[in-house]
């Protein structure tokens, strides 16, 4: 069994499928899904905004979720979760969020923390209240 | 009762049941093993268990694929203790759509499509199902689409890997007398 013969293991159809998917990946990276520097931080629980703050002011916020208190720190124009009652601590591992559109989600504690840019202010709040 | 007196159809059925049980057991083992691996990025899973589902699909058909994947998700989640939790819901919806796409692609394109192609469809389906449920139940904001490029890239890589491993496995199994049908299948291809 030759390890280097792996290309032979793809049928021509498989190759086409791989190429199509590779193109999709490439295009999806080009899409303007990521935006500029964020201005504000919003915290949502079950789809409702429960807290907003400017990223300019350094502070720590305690957010109440079903599991307990998640502590959000705002520092140097970035937000990050520094303590959380959830079992896997994924939200802490996500690190800092500072660009518009960045997201820190703590699924077990039902909290979604996201960064919003100035441009969204002009668009109104239709996006949020969905 | 000696084996020479057994009806060949009954023997084949029993054989299939035994191998299906083995495939499910291995899939559950891989599912659990993967959960034990350090996972620096949340939501990114290689889907090693899908190797067994792919193998079952190419040996016994679409029904076997459904049995292996559904049994694996249920038993695997039971073992890990996250049955019916939000994480389970994500895993289940991903598995459901992945299995659906894999079965469809197999039915529609079978002579042309190989394990790698089916595996890629499964990987994309898994992401699709997860994103959909994440969107409906948890995040409800367009910014989750930001993650899509990374998920797609990961699907491409993990889908290829799983497909290749399944192909190696199928080739190795085709040499075994219990899988006589496979050998004829491979012979037609090669």
From TrEMBL, chain A:
Q: Tell me which domain of life the UniProt entry assigns to the organism this sequence originates from.
A: Bacteria
Q: Which InterPro entries match?
A: NusG_2_sf
- Please provide an example of a Pfam family that matches this protein in its UniProt record: NusG_II
Record's protein name: Uncharacterized protein
UniProtKB/TrEMBL annotation, chain B:
UniProt keyword list = Membrane, Transmembrane, Transmembrane helix
A Pfam family cross-referenced in the UniProt record is: Hpre_diP_synt_I
Q: Which residues cross the membrane?
A: 18-37, 49-68, 88-109, 116-138, 144-165
* Protein's recorded name: Heptaprenyl diphosphate synthase
Q: Which organism is it from?
A: Malonomonas rubra DSM 5091
Q: What is the lineage of its organism?
A: Bacteria, Pseudomonadati, Thermodesulfobacteriota, Desulfuromonadia, Desulfuromonadales
């Amino acid at each position: 069994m030759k390890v280097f013969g792996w290309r032979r293991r793809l049928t021509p159809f498989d190759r086409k499928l791989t190429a199509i998917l590779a193109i999709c990946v490439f295009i999806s990276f080009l899409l303007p899904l990521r935006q500029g520097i964020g201005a504000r931080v919003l915290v949502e629980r079950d789809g409702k905004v429960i807290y907003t703050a400017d990223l300019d002011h350094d502070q720590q916020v305690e957010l109440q979720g079903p599991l307990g208190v998640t502590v959000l720190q705002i520092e140097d124009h970035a937000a990050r979760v520094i303590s959380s009652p959830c079992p896997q601590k994924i939200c802490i591992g996500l690190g800092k969020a500072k660009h518009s559109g960045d997201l820190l989600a703590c699924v077990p504690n039902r909290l979604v923390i996201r960064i919003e840019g100035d441009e969204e202010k002009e668009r109104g709040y239709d996006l949020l209240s969905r | 009762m000696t084996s020479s007196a057994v009806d060949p159809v009954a023997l084949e059925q029993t054989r299939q049941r035994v191998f299906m049980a083995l495939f499910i057991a291995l899939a559950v083992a891989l599912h659990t093993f993967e959960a034990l691996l350090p996972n620096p990025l949340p939501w990114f899973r290689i889907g090693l268990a899908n190797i067994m589902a792919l193998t079952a699909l190419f040996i016994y058909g679409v029904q076997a694929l459904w049995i292996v994947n559904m049994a694996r998700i249920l038993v695997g989640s039971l073992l890990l203790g996250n049955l019916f939790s939000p994480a389970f819901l994500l895993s289940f919806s991903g598995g459901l759509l992945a299995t659906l796409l894999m079965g469809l692609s197999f039915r529609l394109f079978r002579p042309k499509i190989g394990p790698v192609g089916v595996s890629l469809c499964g990987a994309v389906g898994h992401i699709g199902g997860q994103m959909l449920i994440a969107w409906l139940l948890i995040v409800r904001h367009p910014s989750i689409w930001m993650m899509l490029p990374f998920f797609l890239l990961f699907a491409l890589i993990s889908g290829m890997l799983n497909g290749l491993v399944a192909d190696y496995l199928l080739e190795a199994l085709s040499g075994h007398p219990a899988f006589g049908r496979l050998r004829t299948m491979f012979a037609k291809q090669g």
